[in-house]
Structures are given as structure tokens and as C-alpha cells.
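Recap from last week: sequence in, structure out.
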Amino acid sequence: MAALVTRKFGEEAFHFLGKKVSVETSDQKVYNGTLAGIDDKLDVVLDKVEGHGIMKVIINGAFVKEIRLMEKPFDFKALAERLSRVFPGLVKVREDVGAIIVMDKIKVTQSGVEEGSGLSADRVRSIYDDFMKETKR
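Predicted C-alpha cells:
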């Protein structure tokens, strides 16, 4: 059971990588930046730190009180549902690697279609573009 909980925690923390976060330390200091790295001891690497004159900082996990996600995470499930309407039974969500795989050959991440070519990849790209336009509203 403990291994399952640890694995699930790691998967959830993985979703924060590359996102804007706010880290509060036990001495009430707050660092806002992009989460570049995190380990199982909550040691944190922040990039593009705001307001401290610091470009990058490593914070010892023993001093991390709280990590807050400051931006909405990408909704892989909603995009996968939309893709499944066009490609029924051929869409797999791989949140562990931050991707959707269509027809076992087209890889879609939150940045767009990263692998795959041809008419199917063009259709996936079109669906992705429409999804992004609608979610930005």
C-alpha cells in the first residue's frame, strides 16, 4: 500500500513540472517560479524565480512547507475524449509521460503533435488546434 501511495504522489508531483508554482518555506519565505525539478524528499529546483533577483534556486525539501500550482494543468482527458470521437478505440492517454498516443503512432503533448505524419496526424493537429482555441477562452 505504501508503495502505491508513494507512486501516486510522484505522479501528481510530476504534473507540476514545467508549471508556474509558488513554494512557501517553513520560515515563511515565498518563491514563485517554474518548477524545474523535484525529488522524493521535496527538494525543489525553481527556474525563472520572480522578485528575488534570482534566476534559479534549489530549496531543501526539509524547509518546504507548501507547493502551490499557479496555473491550470493541461486537460489530457478532455482532449483524448475529443480525439476518440474521430479515432474510436485508437486513443490512449499516457499521463505518466504527459502525452496522448493516437493509433500507436501519433504523439500529442500539451505543446501539440510531436510525432507522426500524414493525413491522420494532420487531423489530430486540427483537433488539437481547435481544442486549444476553445480552452483559451
